[in-house]
């Protein structure tokens, strides 16, 4: 069973199979920050139908995929990347994985094609927890924890990520990965 000491930037929070909250159903969240006062993460499993170009002022970005980072403040744009050589000022949350950075450099790298979508992800909104809230949720078994792997964070088929991450954990987690979305249909 995971403990609050397992919570740190760079871990994945994997929702338990029967969590009904639509914002977190079968969700995998990359934890970007965890302190005594708050926790912050981005949902990796919820691609949106809108594209980044549709929310930017200038139509220069092309068809960039956009993810719902969580239910908190969908007016905030966040990004994660693995190209600190192109984007300065990001915070390393796991070896080779960065959150945020110089947005002007991001725009330039995307427009001129020097960064690919296997190296950067954009999110609107985020997932946030107040002091102690995530610790309590972890103790109540709402989340499982796994160290983030770069290939999971940039999974090209986010609909498969929840099952894949659980399967990789092995043991009883493999069994959980096979649970149907609706157990009544079993």
From TrEMBL:
Which top-rank group of organisms is this from?
Bacteria
Tell me the organism.
Aquirufa regiilacus
Give the protein name, as stated in the record.
Answer: YqgE/AlgH family protein
- Similarity section: Belongs to the UPF0301 (AlgH) family.
């Amino acid at each position: 069973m995971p403990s609050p000491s397992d919570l740190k930037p760079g871990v994945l929070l994997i929702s338990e199979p029967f969590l009904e909250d639509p914002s977190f159903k079968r969700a995998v969240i990359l934890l970007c920050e965890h302190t005594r006062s708050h926790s912050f993460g981005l949902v990796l499993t919820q691609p949106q139908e809108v594209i980044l170009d549709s929310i930017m002022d200038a139509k220069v970005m092309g068809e960039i995929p956009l993810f719902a980072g969580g239910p908190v403040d969908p007016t905030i744009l966040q990004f994660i990347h693995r190209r600190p050589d192109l984007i300065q000022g990001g915070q390393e949350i796991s070896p080779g994985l960065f959150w945020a950075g110089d947005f002007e450099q991001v725009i330039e790298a995307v427009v001129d094609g020097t960064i690919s979508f296997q190296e950067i992800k954009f999110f609107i909104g985020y997932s946030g927890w107040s002091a102690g809230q995530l610790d309590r949720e972890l103790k109540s078994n709402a989340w499982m924890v796994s160290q983030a792997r770069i290939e999971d964070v940039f999974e090209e088929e986010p609909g498969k990520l929840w099952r894949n991450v659980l399967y990789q954990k092995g043991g009883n987690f493999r069994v959980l990965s096979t649970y149907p979305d609706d157990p009544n249909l079993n």
